[in-house]
Design goal:
single chain; alpha/beta; Aminopeptidase; Glucose Oxidase, domain 1; 3 domains; 7-stranded mixed sheet
């Protein structure tokens, strides 16, 4: 149950300040750069009016801003939307349509994406797609675009599942590109159409027809506002609460409600700053939608050393407080934070959450630094209600299919649900900034590693021996058990316990969520657990000539995992000595 200190602060949270921002943003489109800056400055004005100091950074970041799109087939022009980062092609690209039905499978890794989407038909895509326009079901997302691009297609049409067309982004590049990222920049036009238009295009494709895609986007460097609040506690270590304020159109459920949640939390925490042990930073990002998380990525790059040295955890605030979103069965959370989040949601919402592993999405721009993380999606509508309404799955807005459309308006927000989510976010933060000892439970992560390695070993069979990694997990878990017992018994000073728990994040989060080195950014395609070992699940796909290369990769991956686990265990043992 909430302590007296927590309760005293929780009772100060209200809905009016938050709801006023939701109502204001419901009349402010926020995807074009000038409009985004106006919204960022408005957030800063609201903060200052409440007496909360705010610094507005103004970095120049790379954006791709959709303007218009269409597809013409059999002399009829149909409405479409270009996802951010599509090639801008106002003059049009004309080619034969090739329809491949989507298998609607989740991507497991980048290298197997074609077969994941299209099954056996994905094996010879180069022969089928070269010089053609790929037509398939889905959203105009990075994975589909990568498939089309890499197999020689000259365009991609994604058929959305409903009557509306959803905005999105189609690049795998995370944030502003660097020189190494640029080869992955999409070089083909991509559009999304609704289900009715898709049916007409599929019929044309089955008859060997052609189509003309036209896209218009503004791409380049734009100065954008990044409001950041620093709420000082007694200690310099801080928690980062953040979310995006740019949106598609007026974007009420994604993410005006999140912006309002952070505004109210800033007000409450500032008023109680004298009671906080640790500090809190609250940041509102531009470039989420048109820059593939360019705002949060800029912050991660610009303040990397500060985050590495002093950030306790990051908490993402995206799409809280939406209509009908009364369930917590898709709560995003890393393993070590699950006990904290579980207790908070049980206390505030009266539900036991069901957790999901964080996707490579939603401004999780800090995995490569190694920050323990939770939330992105929190509340959502119950599955039975979604099925009753005939809704398909979307990635925000509390499950409302207004997500990323012009229909994400004021009616998508719910005052009561928003108030519940504000309290959940606030109590979660308090449990990171008030206690003497940080609450991360790294044995939960060790248990996840154990299950992951067992699965990879079963998939690899005798071809790969993962027992050295499995032995290191057991040794790490044993060291953690002894350390946690010593912490609970007061045998380890809080300062040392906290340094250890933060230090473990710098090793184990990148190990479990990234492939590339620290301080770089992985492609925007979700990684499996312990991703460098994912090759173990694919050994059967390699012929005799290539199998040795795959086994070499698996051996090198095992070495990386073993070394990281051994380093983590050594840190635990040294902190306990």
């Amino acid at each position: 149950m909430a302590s007296a200190a927590e309760t005293g602060i929780l009772e100060q949270a209200g809905i009016e300040t938050a709801w006023e921002l939701v109502e204001t943003f419901s009349g402010m489109p926020r995807w074009r750069p000038d409009d985004v800056n106006a919204a960022g400055d408005l957030i800063a004005e609201r903060l200052r009016a409440m007496g909360v100091p705010v610094e507005v950074h103004r970095p120049t970041i790379w954006l791709s801003v959709p303007q218009d799109a269409s597809v013409e087939v059999a002399g009829v022009r149909h409405r479409a939307k270009p996802p951010s980062s599509s090639l801008s092609c106002p003059e049009g690209v004309t080619a034969e349509l090739v329809y491949l039905p989507s298998q609607k499978a989740s991507l497991r890794s980048y290298t197997k994406s074609a077969t994941a989407f299209f099954g056996a038909a994905g094996a010879d895509l180069g022969d089928r797609l070269r010089g053609k326009i790929l037509l398939t079901e889905g959203f105009g997302n990075p994975a589909l675009t990568a498939i089309a691009h890499e197999h020689g297609a000259v365009g991609l049409i994604a058929v959305n599942p409903g009557v509306d067309i959803h905005w999105g982004t189609c690049t795998t590049i995370w944030g502003t590109p660097d020189l190494d990222d640029l080869p992955r920049k999409p070089t083909i036009p991509v559009i999304a159409v609704n289900k009715e238009t898709g049916a007409a295009l599929i019929a044309e494709a089955e008859g060997g027809g052609t189509a003309t895609i036209r896209t218009e986007l503004d791409e380049g460097w734009f100065e954008q506002a990044v409001p950041v609040v620093e709420i000082p506690g007694a200690e310099a270590d801080f928690v980062l609460l953040h979310g995006h304020y740019d949106s598609w159109d007026v974007g009420v459920g994604d993410n005006a409600t999140g912006d309002a949640t952070m505004l109210e939390i800033a007000r409450v925490l500032w008023a109680n700053r004298g009671d906080l042990r640790r500090s809190v930073r609250i940041a509102w990002w531009p470039g989420h939608s048109t820059g593939r998380y360019a705002g949060s990525t800029w912050f991660a790059d610009a303040f990397a050393q500060d985050l590495d040295r002093a950030c306790v955890a990051q908490v993402n605030c995206d799409s809280p407080g939406c209509r009908w979103a009364t369930s917590y069965h898709q709560t995003t959370c890393m393993a070590e934070m699950k006990p904290l989040v579980k207790a908070v949601i049980e206390e505030i919402a009266g539900q036991t959450p069901i957790f999901k592993r964080p996707n490579q999405a939603g401004d999780y721009s800090f995995n490569n630094i190694g920050l323990s993380s939770f939330y992105m999606l929190s509340s959502t509508m119950p599955d039975d209600l979604r099925e009753e309404k005939g809704y398909y799955a979307v990635s925000g807005c509390g499950g409302n299919i207004a997500w990323h459309t012009e229909n994400d308006t004021l009616e998508i927000a719910d005052r009561d649900v928003l108030m519940t989510d504000i309290r959940i976010y606030l109590l979660s933060l308090l449990r990171l900034v008030l206690p003497e000892v940080l609450p991360m439970d790294w044995r939960q992560a060790a248990a996840e590693f154990r299950d992951t390695l067992d699965g990879y070993q079963e998939a690899a069979g005798e071809a790969v021996d993962l027992s050295p990694a499995q032995a290191e997990v057991e040794a790490l878990d044993a060291a953690l058990a002894a350390f946690d017992t010593a912490v609970d018994g007061g045998e380890v000073p809080a300062e040392r316990a906290n340094a250890l728990r933060m230090g473990l994040a710098r090793i184990l989060v990148p190990l479990n969520y990234t492939r590339v080195p620290r301080f770089r950014h992985d492609p925007a395609i979700t990684c499996p657990p312990l991703p460098v070992l994912d090759v173990c699940t694919a050994l059967g796909e390699f012929d005799a000539g290539a199998r040795g290369f795959a086994l070499t990769q698996a051996l090198r991956a095992r070495n990386r995992v073993v070394a990281a686990l051994r380093q983590a265990r050594s840190m635990v043992e040294a902190a306990h000595a």
